[in-house]
Design a protein that fits this description.
Layout: H1 6-9, E1 11-20, E2 33-40, E3 46-51, E4 67-71, E5 78-85, E6 97-105, H2 106-112, E7 114-120, E8 126-139, E9 144-152, E10 159-161, E11 164-166, E12 177-180, H3 181-185, E13 193-199, E14 207-214, H4 216-219, E15 228-231, E16 248-252, H5 257-262, E17 266-274, H6 298-310, E18 318-324, E19 326-328, E20 333-335, E21 338-339, E22 348-350, H7 351-362, E23 367-368, H8 375-389, E24 396-404, H9 411-421, E25 426-432, H10 439-444, E26 464-468, H11 476-484, H12 487-497
Parallel strand pairs: 17-18, 17-24, 24-25, 25-26
Antiparallel strand pairs: 1-4, 1-8, 2-3, 2-5, 5-6, 7-8, 9-12, 9-16, 10-11, 13-14, 15-16, 18-21, 18-22, 19-20, 19-23
Length: 512
């Protein structure tokens, strides 16, 4: 199964570059810096994406040329910023003085919004006292416009905007809606748009409350903290001496995924590993837990593929990892929620490397057993997501990665746990390893219709993404793309539906 279309996944991000305290390589003047951006491809080769202008005689340049990138949440996009002192008119940079470089991922940049790091020489020594600062700004995709519209002090008691009706309310808040630019303004952001607000009548003879005119350019500056407001004018009443307006229409823009990331929302990444007996004896090559001489098995491959993307969005890089379905020392009781480092008070592993090390060290100490129960670890993570929700802001989102080889034993309890978690800031990724029948997993990944619990309660949203590992053998990039493709929409839909703002917006004054 191929990964999702890059065109669908991409968000445009604009990067602005500045430097301070660059090394002075010129004798009779200051350095003339330029910054070149290199991108790492899947075959480990670097190619030049673009370069800034050269600034004469400056050790603290602020480059005017910006880089516009396609940002994919589900990919690790490695980048290298190289600064040179330009000494000649040739395009080749190899004959110019090297002032330092910084290598990092685009995920690290957008999760910080602005990042400042020391420049390094090619031997990894500091390049003097030079630093580079990279600022990221999202370029809103203008192919689809997202709006939230409200009003206050309307003239009538029953009113209508577009095809959504709010009854008996002079201060209505209409449901958020999306509209294509082709339908809204023919793709011309400066084209005049006329908005009418009507008093709704069942017989269809709606009466006009008032109107206003605007452009998409004016509307797109709207945010949750600073909505755009328009006076609703009724032409028939406009001639009255004391007439001011027939109400005020307020337009807001929904927060985007990058609004949350750049606004300080942190991802909390938890891993759950299946240690049931159906995996086979880890000491034998037939086992899914067998680690071959190259240090590889399907469990490790899934951890690396997903974890290396997620870790850029977790400031602590400390990941709790749990096992299930094994007999655990010293009591040898079957556990479905044990920390693989065997430290119940501190189940965290330092980075993805720490996860791999803990996994390798715990394997010989376990007795693989059964059954395959998902609900304990889902409820465990949901408990923390529930606590985070009480903060009343979009500060934390929880992602649970479950790697498993078999059929779920506690399906009813798992369905109930997922339905309950659908009302929390939480998503579940399931990667199926081996060649088992994964039809139950497909059922949980309810793309066609929302999942129901045994008591008939319906999930608030789809939070499960399942992929079978065998469809991505040897292609970790495609695996990460597939399992993470739905996550940005899951994050934005949850926080926007609950009207939760990114933490950093609370530092900004609300409009008067």
């Amino acid at each position: 199964m191929p990964g999702p279309s890059p065109t669908y996944l991409a968000t445009k991000v604009e990067l602005t570059i500045s430097c301070e305290n660059l090394m002075d390589m010129d004798v009779f003047s200051k350095s003339d810096p330029l910054c070149a951006l290199y991108i790492n491809t899947t075959d480990s080769n670097w190619y030049e994406f673009g370069r800034t202008e050269m600034i004469l005689n400056c050790l603290n340049p602020k480059f005017a040329k910006k880089f516009v990138m396609d940002y994919y949440f589900e990919m690790v996009q490695r980048m290298k910023f190289c600064v040179y002192d330009i000494d000649n008119d040739t395009y080749d940079l190899s004959d110019d003085d090297f002032l330092g470089e910084l290598e990092l991922t685009l995920g690290q940049i957008v999760s910080s919004k602005q990042i400042t790091r020391p420049l390094l020489l090619q031997d990894r020594r500091p390049a003097g006292h030079g630093t580079i600062t990279i600022c990221a700004e999202e370029i809103t995709d203008t192919r689809i416009a997202n709006f939230e519209v409200s009003a206050r002090h309307l003239d009538k008691k029953v009113n209508n905007y577009s095809y959504y009706v709010v009854k008996n309310n002079l201060n209505p808040i209409w449901r958020p809606f999306r509209i294509s630019l082709r339908a809204l303004c023919g793709g011309d952001v400066e084209k005049t748009i006329k908005v009418d607000c009507y008093d709704h009548h069942i017989n269809g003879s709606h009466s006009l409350i008032g109107s206003f005119k605007t452009t998409l350019t004016e509307l797109e500056v709207a945010t949750h903290t600073s909505p755009v407001e328009f006076e609703c004018i009724n032409p028939k009443k406009q001639k009255k001496r004391d007439y001011k307006n027939s109400g005020v229409i307020c337009v807001e823009r929904e927060f985007t995924f990058l609004d949350f990331i750049m606004g300080g929302c942190q991802f909390n990444f938890t891993i759950a590993i299946d240690f049931t007996g159906s995996n086979g004896d880890p000491r034998t090559p037939q086992s899914l837990h067998f680690i071959n001489p190259e240090g590889y098995n399907e469990y490790l491959a899934a951890i690396w593929a997903v974890g290396t993307v997620i870790q850029d969005y977790d400031s602590t890089k400390m990941f709790p990892v749990f096992g299930f379905g094994a007999q655990v020392p010293p009591s040898w009781q079957v556990s479905h929620e044990f920390p693989i480092n065997f430290d119940a008070t501190n189940p965290f592993c330092a980075g993805i490397e720490g996860v791999v090390t803990a996994y390798q060290q715990c394997l010989p100490q376990l007795k693989l057993w059964g059954p395959t129960n998902f609900s304990p670890v889902i409820n465990h993570v949901a408990c923390f997501a529930r606590q985070a929700l009480q903060q009343n802001m979009a500060s934390q989102y929880f992602v649970l990665l479950i790697i498993t080889d078999g059929v779920i034993t506690d399906m009813d309890q798992t369905r109930s746990a997922i339905v309950a978690a659908s009302r929390l800031p939480m998503s579940i990724i399931i990667v199926g390893v081996g060649g088992a029948d994964f039809s139950a997993m497909e059922f949980l990944d309810s793309d066609d219709r929302l999942l129901r619990a045994p008591n008939n309660e319906v999930a608030a949203r789809d939070i499960v993404q399942f992929v079978p590992f065998r469809q991505f053998q040897g292609n970790s990039v495609a695996l990460a793309q597939s399992v993470l493709a739905e996550l940005p929409d899951q994050v934005t839909s949850f926080f926007n539906s609950y009207k939760l703002k990114p933490p950093n917006t609370f530092n900004q004054p609300e409009p008067l």
